[in-house]
């Protein structure tokens, strides 16, 4: 689970908009991140010894236009009940928007 509201990846500090996933001794997580107004979808997995930021680099981040696109990407990598949690968390923060034209939450 991503703790806090920021995540350091390759020297940049990304704002964590929302995250959800499966957690145990091993984990698989999806997240929507923001840097300089641009939204990014990220997913990662690992064991309890490492965190999300230990397994993700900037090249793993996928630019997305809105939170709905992030939810669609989450459907490919986490279980349905966790996708629902992810979507609910994102829906709670609408209508937050990005400073990049064409990018909205």
Structure overview:
- Helix 2 (67-74) packs antiparallel against helix 3.
- Helix content is 25%, strand content 37%.
- It has one domain.
- The chain has 3 helices and 5 strands, in the order ββββαβαα.
- The protein is of the alpha+beta class and 105 residues long.
- The longest helix is centred in the last third of the chain and has 14 residues, at 80-93.
- The protein has a 5-stranded antiparallel beta sheet with strand order 1-2-3-4-5.
Structural class of the helices, strands and pairings?
A: alpha+beta
How much of the sequence is in beta strands?
35-45%
How helical, in percent, are the residues? Answer: 10-25%
State Rg. 13 Å
* Number of alpha- plus pi-helical segments: 3
Instruction: Report strand order across the widest sheet.
Output: 1-2-3-4-5
Summarize the structure.
The protein has 105 residues and is an alpha+beta fold. 25% of the residues lie in helices and 37% in strands.
Layout of secondary structure:
Elements: E1 6-9, E2 12-23, E3 26-35, E4 38-47, H1 52-55, E5 62-64, H2 67-74, H3 80-93
Antiparallel strand pairs: 1-2, 2-3, 3-4, 4-5
């Amino acid at each position: 689970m991503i703790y806090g509201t920021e995540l350091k990846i390759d020297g940049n500090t990304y704002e964590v908009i929302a995250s959800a996933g499966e957690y145990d001794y091993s984990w698989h997580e999806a997240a929507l991140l923001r840097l300089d107004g641009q939204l990014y979808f990220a997913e990662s997995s690992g064991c309890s010894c490492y965190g999300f930021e230990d397994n993700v680099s900037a090249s793993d981040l996928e630019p997305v236009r809105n939170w709905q696109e992030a939810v669609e990407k989450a459907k490919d990598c986490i279980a349905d009940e966790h996708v629902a949690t992810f979507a609910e968390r994102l829906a709670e923060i609408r209508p937050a928007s990005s400073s990049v034209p064409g990018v909205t939450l």
